[in-house]
Amino acid sequence: MIARVRGRIEQIENDHVIVDVGAFGITVYAPAAQLVTYHLGQAVALFTHLHVREQDISLFGFSTPEELQLFDLLLRVDGVGPRLALNILSTLTPDSLQLAVANDEPALLTRVPGIGIKTARKILFHLKDKLAPADLTGLGIRPLSDSDAEVIDALTSLGYSIVEAQRAVQSLPKNLEGVEERLRAALSQMAP
Questions:
Q1: Domains and CATH numbers, the chain
Q2: How are beta strands 4-12 and 16-20 bridged, if at all?
Q3: FRET pair for 106, CA 20 to 30 Å: which of 2, 49, 80, 122?
Q4: pLDDT tens digits for range 76-125
Q5: Phi, psi at 148, each rounded to 5°
Q6: Using CA atoms, how far apart are residues 155 and 149, in angstroms rounded to an integer?
Q7: Residue range 11-59, pLDDT digits in tens
């Protein structure tokens, strides 16, 4: 198994990079948020998962061992393959996924292309005991309320990503009450 790849970015594509490791280049699939931080010639060290099937061998790379561990946890869910797991980590941050699990919010997972409500519930059920809701308040993250979920739904229906919507909701003052007031405050934060 290939546990880590170290080299320089030779090429950047939509869902993968080619890492020059000396005599050859290796295609490594990575989350979208990670790919946008790379530039050509950049030195990288990626923690990897080698996925082997009958007709395909793919390498998936992550910048931290925690992201790799989360990817491996997602792969253990029945019906979640490496592409879907990567799609989840490309759409949701690890903190957002942890919040979805802690708050039992399948709606957040259904925003990921390729995930329906049934698969979302299966993922949440599987990860509930494995993704311990670490001290969310210690991370500066507070659990989502019903009004927070409504604000996130409204923001995503307006075209914002789940990650942008969750960040906006997490940064709202605690004294704001009511969905409309919270939505107005979130929108004013997101305005350029």
A1: 1-63 (2.40.50.140), 77-134 (1.10.150.20), 146-190 (1.10.8)
A2: antiparallel
A3: 49
A4: 988 899 999 999 988 887 777 887 888 788 888 888 888 889 999 999 99
A5: -60, -45
A6: 10
A7: 999 889 999 998 889 999 999 888 888 999 999 999 999 999 888 899 9
**Sign of the torsion formed by the C-alpha atoms of 177, 179, 184 and 188:** positive
Question: CA 70, CA 165: separation in Å to the nearest integer?
Answer: 22
How many CB atoms lie under 10 A from the CB of residue 178? 9
pTM across the whole model: 0.70
Q: What are 104-112's contacts with CB under 8 Å, separation 24+?
A: 104/128, 105/144, 105/149, 107/149, 107/153, 108/152, 108/162, 111/156, 111/162, 112/87, 112/88
Helix or strand holding residue 58 (H, E): strand 57-62
Structure tokens at 42: 């950049």
- For residue 17, the tally of other CB atoms under 10 A from its CB is 25
72, 77, 108, 118, 164 from 127: Cα distances, Å: 11, 8, 14, 14, 23
